[in-house]
Amino acid sequence: MRLTVLPNTDTPAYRQIYEQITGQILSGKLAAGESLPPIRWVAKELGVSVITVRGAWEALEADGLIETRVGSGCFVAALTEAERKERLDRALSPALNELIARAKALGCSEQELIDRLHTLY
């Protein structure tokens, strides 16, 4: 698992960590049952406080993406394909809505936007 924290951004460090791990779980790079490294180790590697990493872990657990097993550590939670897709939709919706609104404001048709996405993706 590779994580980075950018210091000069408006996004808090715990949120950057949360979003990167969420992306790795939803993309399948982190599989169900896979263990996460210890909080202290991640904090040291990223040069952030333990409290920052703990905040990310707590948010991940609250969202049902990881599970804590007392004495064993934290592990990626098992998600059904339907849950994974629903979470992915929820994560992408704000950005897609913003993109659609921006395209409309620029006079871009739906097909032009789709074609542009195909070109970029």
Provide the domain count.
Answer: 2
Round the Cα radius of gyration to an integer and report it. 17 Å
Spatial strand order of the main sheet: 1-2
Q: State the helix count.
A: 5
Major sheet, described briefly? 2 strands, antiparallel
Please explain how this structure is put together.
This protein has a two-stranded antiparallel ribbon. A hairpin with a 3-residue loop joins strand 1 and strand 2 (73-76). It folds into 2 domains: 13-76, Winged helix-like DNA-binding domain superfamily/Winged helix DNA-binding domain (Arc Repressor Mutant, subunit A); 81-120. The protein starts with 12 loop residues before the first helix and ends with a helix. Helix 2 (39-46) packs across helix 3. The protein contains 5 helices and 2 strands; from the N terminus they run H-H-H-E-E-H-H. The chain is globular. It is mainly alpha-helical and 121 residues long.
Characteristics:
121 residues, mainly alpha, Arc Repressor Mutant, subunit A, 2 domains, two-stranded antiparallel sheet, 2 strands, 59% helix, globular
Task: Give the topology, please.
Blueprint: H1 13-26, H2 39-46, H3 50-62, E1 66-69, E2 73-76, H4 81-105, H5 110-120
Antiparallel strand pairs: 1-2
Helix pairs in contact: 1-3, 2-3
Short characterization:
With 121 residues, this protein is mainly alpha-helical. Helix content is 59%, strand content 7%. The chain folds into 2 domains: 64 residues, Arc Repressor Mutant, subunit A (Orthogonal Bundle); 40 residues.
